[in-house]
Amino acid sequence: MKIVLLVVGTAALLVGFTRWENPETDLPMLAAISLAVCLPLALRKRLPLTAAILASGISLLGSVIPGWPGRLVAMAALCCAAYYRPLRLSSVVAVSLVWVIGYGILSSKMGPAADLIVLGVALPVVGYALRLQRDRAGQTVRLRLAEADRVAAEDRARLAREVHDSVGHHLTAIRLQAMAARRALGGTPELADRVLGTIDDLSSSALSEVRALLTTSRGDTGLAEVGGLVRRLSTVDRRITVRGTAAPLSPVVDHAAYRVVQEALTNAVRHTDATEIDVCLRHDRHAIEVTVTDNGTGVAQVVEGHGIRGMRERVHVLGGTLSVGPRPRHGWSVRATIPA
């Protein structure tokens, strides 16, 4: 549909501009040549060089029509050819030079040879420059995401080591001591055996939770887990709704977006009396936007604790923005935008 609108809309503009300049121009012929020069634009991505050759040739045929701006379509096709086929820039330049010289001859507007050469080279160069700019921007984003992923992985590994070496060690020691004491007492007295058994069970449960926490900290969680998070936090008196779905994201962006939702929901449940919490996910080619709003009452101003500070750091390291604050009437809003 977009291709059809592009071709038909561009052809209509060519006809309109020409009829504005020369109302006596034959309309059927004008419409036919305008549509013909625009049709190759449908191939500008799959066969860009072919599209440029076809558009250039047809524009040369239509150059005999007074005031017909079909050359603009040929120029756009040449730029697209250099943009989508940067490795064949020399071929595009050759086609562009031939077209510029041919157009100058047929339209009787031959200028100095240097001007023709500059114009013929300039068109592909513009497309090539736009492609380089896009590639460099994409490379910058990829490097930033890779660096953020590396930093996050190092932080997770450091935290896992510290938790494993300190908390894990002490919990294991407590459990072993409790088990040894139970064996030494041989089940008597009964109260001591029951207390030591409780210590053994609690320390074992704590060890399991620590291991689960370390597994979660690897960063495997993403927005796909929001449904489970919502089910855990929803109650009879608190309704949490999720609107929108996120398209596939890079793991580091997906994980950061999930952590924002997790922290925002946790804060809404813990620090407000909200009965309605709304999670909205919006995604396009450039960014993922996460918005969490509630209808509760809380403090009048933002006090950044570890949770909000952690959200802000996660978002900022990926080049995004975070806003946290009260809504105009009541409730709170957390909005994060992260480049995708």
UniProtKB/TrEMBL annotation:
<dbReference type="GO" id="GO:0016020">
    <property type="term" value="C:membrane"/>
</dbReference>
<dbReference type="Pfam" id="PF02518">
    <property type="entry name" value="HATPase_c"/>
</dbReference>
<dbReference type="InterPro" id="IPR050482">
    <property type="entry name" value="Sensor_HK_TwoCompSys"/>
</dbReference>
<dbReference type="GO" id="GO:0000155">
    <property type="term" value="F:phosphorelay sensor kinase activity"/>
</dbReference>
<dbReference type="Pfam" id="PF07730">
    <property type="entry name" value="HisKA_3"/>
</dbReference>
<keyword id="KW-0067">ATP-binding</keyword>
<keyword id="KW-1133">Transmembrane helix</keyword>
<protein>
    <recommendedName>
        <fullName>histidine kinase</fullName>
        <ecNumber>2.7.13.3</ecNumber>
    </recommendedName>
</protein>
<dbReference type="GO" id="GO:0046983">
    <property type="term" value="F:protein dimerization activity"/>
</dbReference>
<keyword id="KW-0472">Membrane</keyword>
<dbReference type="GO" id="GO:0005524">
    <property type="term" value="F:ATP binding"/>
</dbReference>
<dbReference type="InterPro" id="IPR003594">
    <property type="entry name" value="HATPase_dom"/>
</dbReference>
<feature type="transmembrane region" description="Helical">
    <location>
        <begin position="50"/>
        <end position="69"/>
    </location>
</feature>
<feature type="transmembrane region" description="Helical">
    <location>
        <begin position="113"/>
        <end position="130"/>
    </location>
</feature>
<keyword id="KW-0812">Transmembrane</keyword>
<keyword id="KW-0418">Kinase</keyword>
<keyword id="KW-0547">Nucleotide-binding</keyword>
<feature type="domain" description="Histidine kinase/HSP90-like ATPase">
    <location>
        <begin position="256"/>
        <end position="339"/>
    </location>
</feature>
<keyword id="KW-0597">Phosphoprotein</keyword>
<keyword id="KW-0808">Transferase</keyword>
<dbReference type="InterPro" id="IPR036890">
    <property type="entry name" value="HATPase_C_sf"/>
</dbReference>
<keyword id="KW-0902">Two-component regulatory system</keyword>
<feature type="domain" description="Signal transduction histidine kinase subgroup 3 dimerisation and phosphoacceptor">
    <location>
        <begin position="156"/>
        <end position="218"/>
    </location>
</feature>
<dbReference type="InterPro" id="IPR011712">
    <property type="entry name" value="Sig_transdc_His_kin_sub3_dim/P"/>
</dbReference>
<feature type="transmembrane region" description="Helical">
    <location>
        <begin position="89"/>
        <end position="106"/>
    </location>
</feature>
